[in-house]
Amino acid sequence: GLLDITDNIVKGAVVPPVNVVRHDEDDPYLVVGADKGTAAFSDYANAVSADYGFWLGDAVASGGSVGYDHKKMGITARGAWESVKRHFRALGVDTQSTPFTVAGIGDMSGDVFGNGMLLSEHIQLVAAFDHRHIFIDPTPDTGKSFAERQRLFNLPRSSWDDYEKALISRGGGVYPRSAKSIALSPEARAALGIEAEELAPLELLRAILLAPVDLLYNGGIGTYIKATYESHAQVGDKASDAFRVNGDELRCKVVAEGGNLGATQNGRIEFARRNASTGGHAGGRIYTDAIDNSAGVDCSDHEVNIKVLLDRVVEAGDLTLKQRNDLLASMTDEVGLLVLSDNYYQSQALDVATHRPLYLLDGQQRLIQWLERTGRLNRAIEFLPSDDEFAKRRAAKQGLTAPEGAVLLAYSKMSVYDELLASNLPDDPFFSRALKAYFPKVLSEKFAAQIAAHPLKREIIATFVTNTVLNRTGATFVNFIATEAGATAADVIRAFTIAREVFDLEALWDQIDALDMRVDAKLQLTLLSELVAVAQRASRWLLRLRSHAGQSGDDLPTVIARYQPAAREMRANLKAWLPASAYDSWQQAARKLVDAGVAEALAHSLTALTYIIPALDLVDLSQKAGAGLEPTARAYFGVEESLGLAGWRTEINRLPTDTLWQTQARGSARDDVYSIASQIT
After folding, report:
1. Helix 580-595 to helix 556-577 angle, to the nearest 10 degrees?
2. Residue 640: pLDDT band by 50, 70, 90 thresholds?
3. Is residue 320 scored above 60 in pLDDT?
4. Is 96 helix (H, G, I), strand (E, B) or coil?
5. Staple 255 to which of 47, 228, 286, 413, CB 3.0 to 4.6 Å?
6. How many whole angstroms separate alpha carbon 367 and alpha carbon 382?
C-alpha cells in the first residue's frame, strides 16, 4: 500500500520505508480523503495507519468515527453558500431574507445538495434532478417546501420520489428518468422558460440547466456546462453528453459549484463573459469549484493539524484518548467557523479583483508572465489568457473573469507559500500569532507550548500568513511590490504586516466587512480596494526607506512601536492639527460616505488615512529635528497649505487609474508631493 513507500516519523526523526530506493527528499506527510460512497471508509484507513505505526495515526483519513463528519457539519455546502451569499449581495439580494428561485443538481439525501438546500428558508426550488428522478415545483411555497426538504434530508436513503406530492405546486411533479417522455404543464413550462408541451427526460434535464432562475446549484456528480467551442469528448464525462449545455446558453444569474467539476473552466469563463461589454461579473456570476467547495478539504486540514497536536499531548500523558476525542467533538462549531472565514475572504478577494476589471489587468499579466518564467505555471493548461488575448481585452476594456482570477489567486498563493516556507519568516516570533490564530481558542489557551512545538508549525504559519495577506490584498499585490522594490515575498509580507499594524487596517477591514447588505456592494468593494491601496503605499515606503522592512536589524515589534503610536496620535488629533481647508476637505469626503450609508465613525477613519499616512515621514522628521509630533505635523500641514500641495494632490487624483501602472504612476506622483512637503518641513 501507500504506507509501504511513505516515510514515517519515529521519535521525532524521519524513517524511510524499508526496501525502497528514494530519489526524493524526506516527505512523511500522507493523508487520504473520502469521495462519494467512501465516507464510511475513513476508519478502515486509520486502522491501517495504526497497524503501520504511522506518525499521523487517525489523522490519515479525516472524518472518521473520531473526527469531523462533513455531512453532519454540512461544512462543504456551508462553504459553497458563502459564495452564494456573496454573489447575491452583489445583485442587491439577501438570500437569508428574500425569496429567490433555484434549479439544482442532486437530491436531499446527498451531503452537498441536501445541506445546501437547507441553508436558507427562502429558497424556491423550482426544479432539480439526480440520476433517478426529475423534480419540478413551478411555484413552491417557501415554508412548506423547506420543511419537506428537511424531512427528506433526515429520511435515510431518501429520493425525490419520497417528496409529499400534495406539497408540490400546481403543474409540478416527480418523474422517473426512465420514462419515455414527460408531459409538461403550462406552469412547468413557464417556470422553465420553454414552450414544448412534452420532452424526453434528457431534454428536460437540459431545460432545467437552462432554466431562467436566480441560482443554478450543483450538488451532484458530472460535468454539465462547457464552452461553445469545446466538444463533448474534450469534457470527458460521457454520461452527461446528451444534455450538457454551453456557458453562454445559461439563463440563470448565479452558478454555485458545491460538487466538483460541474463545469469546465472554459464553460465558466464563457458564462462569466456572457453578454459582457466589460470583464468581471458583467455576465453571469460564477467562481470555480475549487473556490466554492473548498470547505471540506479545509476542514480536513484543520482536523489533521489538530490531531497531530493533541496526539503529542496524549503521548506526554497530559490527556487521555477519551479526553482528546471529547475535546475534538467540543470544538466542532469553532472549527466550522474558522473554515468558513476562508470561504468568505477568498470569494471577497475575487470580487475586489473584478470590481475594477482593467485596474489590475497589467499586474495580472505580469504575474502570469513571472509564474511562467519561473516554471510555476503553464497558462494554456490553466486556460489563462495569452499575451495576445490580454491585448484584445485591454482594447475592449475587458478584464479577467472571476474564474480566471480564482486560478491566478491559487497560483499566487502557492508561489508565495513556497517562498515564505523557504525563508526565515515562519521562524520569526512575531508570526507565531498566526499559528495561534489557526487553532480553536481552547487549544491556543490550554496548549500554547505544544502548539509552538507543532511539527508542522512552519507549514501552518506559511499557509495562514499567505491566505490572510492575499485574501485581503489580492493575487498581484506581493508580486507587484516585490518586482518594483527588488524585494522577496517575505520582505513584502513583513512590510505589509507593519503597515497593517501601524495604521490599524485590520480593524477597518473588519468594519467594512460588517457593511454587508448595509451599503451598496460596489461601494463596499471600492472601500476595500482603497485600503489595499493604502497598504500598498505604506509597504512600498517601508521597503524603500526601511531597508526591506526590518531586515536591517529591527524586528517587527520594534518597527511597529516606532510608527504606530504616531499614527494613532495623529488620528486622535487630526481635527486640531489640520488647517481649516484640509479639515473641510476631510469632512466633505467623510460626508459622502455617510450619505451612502457608512457609519460616521468609520467614514471619518477611512477618509482620515490620507492625512495619517505621512506619520511614516513625520516620525523620522520629528526625531531629526528634536521636536514633538504635534509641531512637526502642524508644520508639515502648514507647508502643504502654503504651497497648495493639496490642490496638486487633487489634480493627481484625477489622473486615470484604469490600469495598475497608471495607478502606480499616480501613486509615484503623489509620493513626490508628500516628499516635497517632508523635505521643506
Report:
1. 100
2. confident
3. yes
4. coil
5. 286
6. 14
So what's the pLDDT on residue 240? 97
Backbone angles phi, psi at 13, to 5 degrees: -115, 145
Can you tell me the distance from the alpha carbon of 550 to that of 498, in angstroms, rounded to the nearest whole number? 9
Burial 525-553 (b: 16+ CB within 10 A, else e): bbbbbbbbebbbbbbbbbbeebebbbeee
In a domain, 355, yes or no: yes
Domain shared by 60 and 107, yes or no: no
Local structure of 256: helix, strand or coil: strand
Neighbours of 322 (CB within 10 A): 9
Q: How many domains does the chain have?
A: 4
Residue position matching grid coordinates 528634536: 626
Average pLDDT over residues 296-319: 96
Q: What is the pLDDT of residues 524-555, one digit of tens each?
A: 999 999 999 999 999 999 998 755 444 455 78
Cell of 228: 461553445
Res 310: pLDDT: 97
Q: Are residues 582 and 628 in the same domain?
A: yes
Going by DSSP bridges, is the β-strand pair 173-176/198-199 parallel, antiparallel, or unpaired?
A: unpaired
User: Which three cell numbers, joined as nine digits, stand for 413?
Assistant: 498563493
Chain centre to alpha carbon of residue 428: 26
**Are both 307 and 286 inside the same structural domain?**
no
Three-state SS sequence of 355-370: HCCCCCHHHHHHHHHH
Q: Is residue 555 part of a domain?
A: no
Structural element, H or E, at residue 125: strand 123-129
Residue 452, amino acid: A
d(C-alpha 174, C-alpha 137), whole Å = 9
Mark whether 82 and 231 lie in a shared domain. Answer: yes
Q: CB-based contacts of 648: which residues, under 8 Å, 6+ apart?
A: 673
Global pTM?
A: 0.93
Q: The dihedral of CA 18, 24, 29, 34: what is its sign?
A: negative
Structural domain for 136, as ranges: 73-292
What DSSP element (H or E) covers 550? helix 547-550
Question: Which cell goes with 210?
Answer: 437552462
Count of Cβ atoms closer than 10 Å to residue 345 Cβ? 17
- For residues 276 and 344, membership in a common domain is answered with no
Classified as helix, coil or strand, 108 is: coil
Of the candidate ranges 38-47, 69-78, 644-653, the one whose mean pLDDT is the lowest: 644-653
Given this model, what pLDDT does residue 676 score?
60
Planar angle of CA 393, 396, 397, nearest 5 degrees: 80
User: pLDDT tens digit string along 86-105?
Assistant: 999 999 999 999 999 999 99
Strand extents, DSSP E, 47-122: 100-105
**At CA 26, angle to CA 22 and CA 31, rounded to 5?**
105
Q: What percent of the chain has pLDDT over 90?
A: 84
Where residue 33 falls among pLDDT bands split at 50, 70, 90?
confident
